[in-house]
Amino acid sequence: MYMVKYVIKRIALMFFVLFTIMTMSFVLVKMLPNIDAEQFGKDAALVAQRREMMGYNKPILVQYGIFLKRSILGGDWGMSEALYRMQDVWTVFVSKLPATLMVNVCSIFLSIPIGLLLGIYAALKKNKWQDYTISTLVMVFISVPSFVYAFLIQYILCFKLKLFPLQLKAGTDWFSPAMLKSAVPAILSLSFGSIAGFARYTRAELSEVLTSDFMLLARTKGLTRSQATIRHAMRNSMVPIFPMILGEFVGIMGGSLIIEQIFGVPGVGQLFLNSINGRDYNFFMLLTVFYTLIGLVAGIVVDISYGIVDPRIRMGER
After folding, report:
1. In total, how many domains does the chain have?
2. pLDDT tens digits for 213-238?
3. For residue 24, is it within any domain?
4. What is the three-state SS of 80-133?
């Protein structure tokens, strides 16, 4: 019962936060000047007609009401005015998702096992040179921004060694060998930070569990160190780590704004940056709602999964 109340409360707060951010974004973007319809040439009359339907000449609150009715309730996010002139915004957005998913799914499947294994090994070798080495590398990879890795990978692997192309291969064969090979630099750039995060978190949780009283009790009952670690320590340390992994999977659709721009990945991250630079308001609003929703859903999934992974945890219970 407590869990149900907690979930309902979190979902209600999620929609409240989403509505607040969406409102602020709409008001702020409407304060920018519109692109002159005459720049669209023969489509100027069509653009002017479309803007009239959307209430561009009306007060902001009226425009916001039209926007909510048209997009949130009606599913019509409008037409592109700058990036993909007179093309449906939603259709273009959906066509960009596969590229983002391909790069991010591969990076997560690479990051999770490597990060967990490094964290487990560092915890088992606590206060030894292996632990110090892994911990130092983890802090370096966490501290350095991902775009720095991207430039280094481009210079070393792509330019000097010529193992991979500098940019993602053109086309829509997202999971073909040639496409995956061209995506390796972007995947590696996204993976370094995630590997370091998983390794640090796993090392901290497992180190704490290994020094718990129930581990000493397990050893006194005759279990070897390996048996006690596998049967008890690993299971208990995964309770806070598993929700973190779920949050990563939910967040993969968001992509990476900078990495996609550097490696020419035609995904939603690059589309978001282009919509800001090109002042394509309809794209901007759709992607703002999308990114906000992804972040909020990821947070809820992480919190709820704690109670699912460990029944002893009762979310919302005082």
Report:
1. 1
2. 777 777 777 777 777 777 777 777 77
3. no
4. CCCCCCCCEHHHHHHHHHHHHHHHHHHHHHHHHHHHHHHHHHHHHCCCCHHHHH
State which residues form the domain around 185: 94-280
pLDDT digits (tens, 9 = 90+) for 6-30: 788 888 988 999 999 999 988 888 7
- Distance linking the first and last C-alpha atoms of the chain: 12
CATH number at residue 165: 1.10.3720.10
Residues 6+ away with beta carbon under 8 Å from 152: none
Are 169 and 196 in contact by the 8 Å Cβ rule? The answer is no
Joined together, the tokens standing for residue 316 give 């919302």
**Can you give the pTM of this predicted structure?**
0.78
SS3 287: helix
Residue 295 located in a structural domain: no
Spatial CA neighbour of 34 closest among 292, 290, 282: 282
